[in-house]
Design a protein that fits this description.
Elements: H1 3-6, H2 11-32, E1 40-44, H3 50-58, E2 63-66, H4 69-76, E3 84-87, E4 103-109, H5 112-121, E5 126-132, H6 148-156, E6 161-168, H7 176-199, E7 210-212, H8 219-224, E8 229-232, H9 234-237
Parallel strand pairs: 1-2, 1-8, 2-3, 3-4, 4-5, 5-6, 6-7
Length: 241
């Protein structure tokens, strides 16, 4: 357990941070001429204590993102059961059997072997996002853009998978326009997937309406470029040690 999970919770700061993030999202939506209903804030709560999460829950946040299956299991039973849990970290195939049906969405499906294991251990249809590696970073998970349609095809061949969109963690940059270019690329890749699904009349089963992109440092740019799910952690809870 990290030091952060043992630290005292500053509820007032968390509430103030939430208001700042929500205002930033609203401003980005206004600049892009988008409907506020199109974007969901996911509070990335990995390593943060349930007490901090409860503060956000009491302020109306219902979507939380965890990276580690065991940490999610530890927190799940200590928080209200109407939370929508998002598994946003890389998922090891041997952890698939530990996932409950109460995971609302798996964001980081990046290989065919993982699809096979999810299918094997799922009772109902799972909502998944395909993770794309942008910028060619060898250390990052995700399928390369030129392999995306192959991964999409493999996922659609499983009857317990519903592909709802794409996810990416672009290379870190302080250049806003470089970040924008990565987000724009993911948006274009989504449309490529939509066209492929329409060709085979599978868009109803795999709607591809989500773009999970944007984190604490760049969520406003991501929203301007079409993000529907923004994953914000430190800007809400404070910095991780």
């Amino acid at each position: 357990m990290s030091a952060d999970m043992n630290a005292a919770v500053d509820a007032a700061s968390i509430r103030e941070n939430l208001a700042t993030v929500q205002s930033g999202i609203q401003g980005a939506l206004a600049r892009a001429g988008r409907d506020p209903a199109e974007v969901t804030l996911i509070a990335v709560s990995k390593t943060f204590p349930v007490e901090a999460m409860q503060v956000l829950y009491d302020e109306g946040v219902r979507d939380f993102g965890e990276s580690y299956v065991q940490e999610w299991l530890d927190k799940r039973d200590r928080l209200p059961d109407d939370i929508r849990w998002h598994l946003i970290g890389g998922l090891q195939s041997n952890k698939c059997k530990m996932l409950g049906e109460d995971v609302a969405m798996i964001h980081a499906v990046d290989r065919k072997s993982l699809i096979k294991e999810l299918q094997k251990h799922s009772v109902a249809v799972r909502s998944v996002l395909l993770q794309v590696r942008l910028g060619g970073e060898a250390s990052k998970s995700g399928v390369d853009p030129d392999g995306l349609l192959g991964l999409l095809e493999a996922t659609t061949q499983r009857d317990r998978m519903c592909v709802e969109g794409l996810m990416a963690i672009p290379p870190p940059t302080e250049d806003e326009e470089q970040a924008r270019a990565y987000f724009h690329e993911l948006s274009e890749l989504r449309w490529r997937c939509v066209e492929w699904l329409q060709k085979d009349r599978m868009l109803d089963q795999h709607p591809m309406w989500h773009l999970s992109m944007g984190m604490s440092s760049d969520y406003e740019v991501a929203v301007e470029e079409g993000a529907t799910l923004v994953r914000v952690g430190s800007a809400l809870f404070g910095s991780r040690s």
